[in-house]
Structures are given as structure tokens and as C-alpha cells.
Amino acid sequence: MEKKRRYFPDEFKRQAAKRVETSGQSIMDIAAELGVHETQLRRWIRQFSKSGTGACAAPHQAGAGPVPGRPGGGQCPVETEAAKGPDGA
User: Fold this and answer.
1) 1: pLDDT confidence band, cut at 50, 70 and 90?
2) Which residues contact 49 (CB under 8 A, 6 or more apart)?
3) Cα–chain-centroid distance for residue 24?
4) Of the residues 2, 61, 74, 77, which has the fewest C-beta atoms closer than 10 A?
């Protein structure tokens, strides 16, 4: 049996991301309530974040180079994924 890909309108994604920021609930809890995987919800948060509060923004600003305390001083994984582009290259 083939799984059908689900579609979520941008407004739904935006409201879900805003709910994480304003509700005080964990991403896991909200994702479970909405019936989506927490990774998908994290992507929506990054996509619709207006304040620059992504996964690595504070106290380190995204795009500022190596992340202090990260093993090997590596780049923020959010920046690395974004730099790859939509085709993953």
C-alpha cells in the first residue's frame, strides 16, 4: 500500500511555528498534538522565524562562523543544511 504525501498550507505551518514560540510547550508535545513529526515542525520554525531565533541563533548568531562548544568548532547544522540548498548539493 502506497503512502500518500500530506500537504500542509503555509498558514498552518506558520501557526504551528508561532504556537511553539508562544505556548511554552515543547516541540515534541505540539508536534504530537498536530500529528506531525518533530523534525518537520522544527523545519517550519526555521522557515517562518522572523526574530532570528533559530536552533543556533542564541547566544551565537547564525552565520557568525564556528559554534563555541561544538565538538571541533563545527558550523551550526542549520546553517550547513541551508547552505546546501533545496537539492542537497
Assistant:
1) confident
2) 17
3) 16
4) 2
By the 10 Å C-beta count (0-12 exposed, 13-18 middle, 19+ buried), 68 is classed as exposed
Q: What pTM was estimated for this model as a whole? A: 0.53
Length of the chain: 89
Q: Where are the domains of the chain?
A: 7-50, 57-83
Q: How deeply is 44 buried, as exposed, middle or buried, from its count of CB atoms within 10 A (0-12, 13-18, 19+)?
A: buried
Q: What is the identity of the amino acid at 32?
A: A
Residue 68 corresponds to which amino acid? P
CB 77 within 8 A of CB 54: no
Q: Which residues contact 16 (CB under 8 A, 6 or more apart)?
A: 30, 34, 36, 41, 44
Is residue 62 classed as helix, strand or coil in its secondary structure? coil
| HSE (side-chain half, CA atoms, 13 Å) at 14 | 4
